[in-house]
Amino acid sequence: MRAAGLGPIFDMVLFDDDVSDSYEGAHGITRLTNGTFISIDVSARLYDYHSQICRTSLPAFAERPTSEEGHQSFSLELQRKLKIWKIVFEAQTASLAAMHENSTAADVAIAARKVIGNAGHGDAATHRVSHGIGTKAYESPFLHRGNVDVILKASMTLVSKPGLYLEGNLAVICGDALLVKAHGEPDVLSEKRAFGPWDPCRCESI
Question: Which residue range(s) make up the domain with 25?
Answer without folding.
Answer: 7-202
